[in-house]
Amino acid sequence: MLAYRGLIVDFAGVLSTPLGLSVRAWCERQGLAADAWRRALVEDPAGRALYGELELGRISQAEWNRRTAELLGGIEHEDLMGRAHAEVRAVPEMVALVEEARRAGLAVALLSNSYGVDPYNPYVATGVWDLFDVRVISGEVGLAKPDPAIFRLTLERMGLAGEDCVFVDDYPANLVPAEELGIATVHADGPGAAARAARLLGLPTVADPADTVDAADAADAVDVAEPAGPTGRDQA
After folding, report:
1. What share of the chain has pLDDT > 90, as a percent?
2. CA dist., res. 49 & res. 228, Å (int)
3. Which domains are present in the chain?
């Protein structure tokens, strides 16, 4: 008998490859400085506030595209988010973890601070949407991690208590409210996180991640992504 009944997984930088890798490559293709996205979304107070509005679903992705394109010097705004994230992919070992958990009878939930779904839907583009029984997306519920309310909502939709679940996220501040609700946590701080989560859940160990994003690239992308304020830290 398994020790847990549910698995909750973050998207950006956990189920997906680091966003910063794709964003920097896009900036360079556009003839922008490699850190232009970071400067617009992280260092510019207007950019930080705008991203927070997107994350909570208060503005559409299309509006965010238009207004952020202005912050980036008036570049083409059409599907800006999708173009910048064109190289983001699902992480195979995390996909394998979710699939194995579901086969074992666990409830599996996606808990994501979103960046909109129209015109660019990152969950569909990376092929992960249908992996989950429950999906809690910040822009759809008007809540975002690390607000404890979004964790309570996730547990409610799963029909489980905190003690029944394991949560995987790459941002330490998001782990704290989960732990306070009794949820066991795994910090996705580099290759091997999926294997650690599998061991905790009592599932077969998933494949070694060496063939996906190497540790140096992952660490570099995390450095570029932080901090974006109380929300939006996965971007840039």
Report:
1. 84
2. 10
3. 6-17+88-212 (3.40.50.1000)
